[in-house]
Amino acid sequence: MQKHILYFVIVLIVISCKKATTVDLLVLNANIYTVDESNPKASAIAIEDGKFIAVGQTEKILEKYNAQHMLDVGGKTIVPGLIDAHCHFYRLGLQQQKVDLVGTRSYDEMLDRMAKFQKEKQVSFITGRGWDQNDWEIKEFPTKEKLDSLFPDTPVAVRRVDGHALLANQKALDIANITMATKVEGGEILKKDGKLTGVLIDNPMALVERIIPEPTLLESVQALKDAEKINFSYGLTTVDDAGLSPKVIALIDSLQRIGELKIRIYAMVSNEPDYVEYYLKNGVYKTDKLNVSSFKVYADGALGSRGAALKQPYADQENHFGAMVIGNAEFKNLAKRLADSPFQMNTHAIGDSANAVVMNTYYEVLANTTNRRWRVEHAQVVAPEEFEILNDNLIMSVQPTHATSDMYWAGKRLGTERIKGAYAYKKLLEKTSKIALGTDYPVEHVSPFYTFYAAVARKDLSQYPKNGFQRKDALTREETLKGMTIWAAFSNFEEMEKGSITAGKFADFVILEEDIMQIEEDKLPNIKVNATFLNGEKVY
Questions:
Q1: Statement to judge: residues 156 and 251 lie in one domain
Q2: Which domain-ending residue is among 149, 184, 209?
Q3: pTM metric for this prediction
Q4: Are residues 7 and 116 in the same domain?
Q5: Domain of residue 148, residue span
Q6: Which end of the chain is more exposed for a tag (fewer CB within 10 A), N or C?
Q7: CB proximity list for 170: less than 8 A, separation 6 or greater
Q8: What CATH number is associated with residue 27?
Q9: Are 31 and 76 in contact (CB under 8 A)?
Q10: In this predicted model, what pLDDT tens digit does every residue of 487-533 receive, in sequence order?
């Protein structure tokens, strides 16, 4: 109490001093981790016109500044605004309008949720996401018979949690004209006993997705606002949305310009031929809130649905290698075009074969260039020979909660040797000097504190396994915080404007209820956000 009285007296003295500079906001008496190597710890910040103008100790800040608004946080911890380096922001918002299948423990529970959803919503086409057969007692892909019985006249298409497989009923298959004779490269249409199962993996999913009604303008706007509210509640001030259309990007820009959407978005453009042509013609687009300077490309599918492309067969499925969803020649041609443009190339690569194609292609087409920061998204399984060629010309963009979600079955997919090179975040960091961290939500949970815990402890929320999954590849807390702030900003070419609490950068910061750098390890997932500020404005 005496300390706070002393600060109050100092404040009164400073206010009466004519030489003090008046700013918009002073934040005082804080435990600040700046993520600025030249000034790593501070206790106060001064903010003017949406930017930090001074960072230091409370007494020194009060000697130089007074303010219209002063916030004494009573010793609480402050970190830079958190950045999710790989997520699906718009999709998260749309998911709030669809059936949520995350966490279902059986196919029957999944069907029960869908029936309840339809009873309440009465939609013309049931869509949703989140089921994972690996969480079920019977760890096999579902088949559509029960779905057909439950919804004979309403089309249904629900995606697996990783987004690389979906289950459709017969009604949806009929509308999409999918039969036993249908063939699509870059994926599978699963069959059993001479019949369609309703499960489509990777590229064939597009046949169903194109018949799903597009969201209305009002639904799209609501989705973006819903997603923003969720992200701000977790201290996220910048999100890297991994795959958007020009239409959605334009909507984001218009909402940001009129102040209806405040969160900062690094928007990766989906790799559709028309989209590529449009942006290569019109160039990079950048505002303080929106950065459109990259393309999101898919090399392969996901490990959980056995769509990840491996050099050797899956350990649990003989003669099955997964699949590339883009041809090697097509991928290289696209890479060459982007290398001749100012755009980044950010490629989804899960399996060791896909990572080999992506990394070697990147190095080949970028051989005579520097500082391109092309990104490998996920980099889940990397072979020893690819580790040998890695250097800091590439950015590894990884999601730590994938390791703790997949650890129960990934070893069965990969076998005892390949699993050693999987989810190897520490080794990737050592080879490249920086690593960008994200969640891949809604595949995983939005919470960046789950990300932090998974990166540091290599455990899931039940604190399993006791000693951490392949603990040798855990990151330190300092590395993890950098991966969620300054290194993520670097991966977006935005490190000069965000990612640390540094004078001259946007005043994006988060007040936490607990000290993320000191709290007991197993308490990390439960850290609460006290407040989120963007441009010095409290948004949560």
A1: no
A2: 209
A3: 0.88
A4: no
A5: 100-209
A6: N
A7: 144, 148, 152, 196, 198
A8: 2.30.40.10
A9: yes
A10: 999 999 999 999 999 999 999 999 999 999 999 999 999 999 999 99
